[in-house]
Amino acid sequence: MNCPLVILACNTASAKALRNIQQKDLSNIDTSKRVLGVIRPTSEMVGKLSKTKKVGVFATAGTVSSETYPIEIKKFFPAVEVFQQACPMLVPLIENNESDKPGADYFVKKYCGELMQKDKDIDTVVLGCTHYPILIDKIKAALPLGVNVVSQGEIVAQSLKDYLHRHPEMDRRLGKSANLSFFTTDSPHQFDKLAGLFFGKEVSSNQINL
Q1: Which CATH number fits domain 45-151: 3.30.720.210, 3.50.50.60, 3.40.50.1860, 3.30.460.10?
Q2: HSE-up of 83 (CA within 13 Å, CB side)?
């Protein structure tokens, strides 16, 4: 399986960790491959979207405790204040197909309220977990009118497009008509149910051992 470019979706992967993967790990595996992260493209963009320079971040407890977002955003926008809100119940709700149930409504309103209590002038909120866009409509409805909710997926997609434009040699190595395959180390049945939520259509995966 020749995959020259990988998107690293783990939100706790800091810029330092990403550099270590790129410079140390890949140098021992395949120097022609590249890894692109999620945090950096988001951090490079979010300060431009906030007029008040007050940005909120919804994330898992692990991501919040790592301080990754405040650290990385400050590198590009020193004047921006970052307010984090851990949302420990959102991933379990989504993964148990409860995203459209009253429980999800309750916790979304709870976390939105707790975030805005930290500063009423927050005007931009980053969804700092790949699961959260499933709840984006509920989150937008629970936040004050005019607060901009940012999904990482759109930012990373644009960043990847820009990267490939700047690196045509990498773009030429990427297949333009390849088949799409899904692989998981977990139960394919469970993976297929969850992946279908994000992918928007039925998914059929293959189990592999690493």
Answers
A1: 3.40.50.1860
A2: 21
d(CA 126, CA 8): 18
Catalytic residue from among 3, 87, 112, 129: 129
C-alpha 97/C-alpha 161 separation (Å) is 32
**Active-site residue identified among 3, 10, 87, 112:** 10
Using one digit for the tens of pLDDT, what is the confidence trace for 88-146? Answer: 999 999 988 899 999 999 999 999 999 999 999 999 999 999 899 999 999 999 999 99
| Structure-token pair, residue 40 | 């950096």
Average pLDDT, the chain: 85
* CA distance linking residue 102 with residue 90, whole number of Å: 12
Sign of the Cα pseudo-torsion (161, 166, 172, 173, in order): negative
Does 10 participate in catalysis according to the annotation?
A: yes
Q: Which of 134, 127, 155, 105 is nearest to 56 (CA)?
A: 127
State pLDDT tens for residues 7-28.
Answer: 444 555 455 566 666 666 666 7
- Give me the residue spans of the domains in the chain: 5-38+155-207, 45-151
Residue type, 199: F
Q: How far apart are CA 188 and CA 66, in angstroms?
A: 31
Would you call 87 a catalytic residue per the annotation? no
